[in-house]
Amino acid sequence: MPSSTQRIAVAGAGSLGVHVIRALVAASYPVTVLTRSSQPKSLDLPSDADVKYATVDYTSVSSLSAALQNHLGVVSTITSTATGEQNPLIEAAANAGVQRFLPAEFGSNMANSKTRALPVYGYKAATEAKMIETAKANPNFTYTMVRNGVFLDWGLQYDFLLKMKEHSITIFDQGEQPFSTTTLATVAKAVVGVFQHLDKTKNRAVYVQDTVITQNELLQMAKKGSGTEDWKVERVTSEDWYQKAMAALGNSPSGEELGKIMVDLLYPSIYTEGYGGDFSGKNDNELLGVREMSRREVEKVVADAFA
């Protein structure tokens, strides 16, 4: 059982953050939830959970450093697209003597040069560079990047993988490109696995997946789960999609328009050949204690999204 000296701080309590907090608690880790609000939302945790809340200013290294004293690790699940936004958290973790830092990576294969070059991932590349620089200057500071592909349950719930209510999907190319996908709960389990294997996950990326699937397979599961074959399918080529998004980005958009373009630029890293979206043969499932789902289990996740 983890001791009180193995307290882990979680920055952010959104869709992924809540799962991470619950998984750490279930594994008996004491947890500190970093929050901007003095009235954090209820996390529905066991009554005996060792969970503390610390109100912080995410732009202040001193505020974060004070909150991170005597912590083994920090897991950042902050929703961020701004370059440098996680830098104060990284600096504070190093200042406080935190041993392991997990950035808000949780997604595509940033080791792939094509994915890394997509404008939407510029902030992640900058965060990675900051971590590496910090680790070189502070030998006790280490990091792990968790890469899990697209979130399966979240991607269904929030119309990222397909549009559930409209019964529609945009198929890239032939729809046969395999891609890795993982539920939020499994990603959280992988985070626990990182802390259970600090030496083997030191200063590197780990890859995790619940399954590898194609868009065509997902569509068939969606038809079965929704109880209807009547689905609207829009077909696009990856190249046309990419060029259209890049052209729109060249018009200096802002606000919601910029956000939509950045979301559009996520898709090539998932559905396009050559972008490293299939983690088969390189994942760390066994090390992290993750068992891949059977096809029936994946079908249930899809069906449950329509319930």
From TrEMBL:
Record-level Gene Ontology MF annotations: oxidoreductase activity
Residue span(s) of domain NmrA-like: 5-228
Name of the protein this chain belongs to: NmrA-like domain-containing protein
Lineage top rank: taxon: Eukaryota
Organism from which the protein derives: Recurvomyces mirabilis
Record key words, sorted: NADP, Oxidoreductase
Keyword Metal-binding: no
InterPro entries, A to Z: NAD(P)-bd_dom_sf, NmrA-like, NmrA/Isoflavone_reductase-like, PCBER-like
PANTHER family: CIPA-LIKE, PUTATIVE (AFU_ORTHOLOGUE AFUA_1G12460)-RELATED (PTHR47706:SF1), NMRA-LIKE FAMILY PROTEIN (PTHR47706)
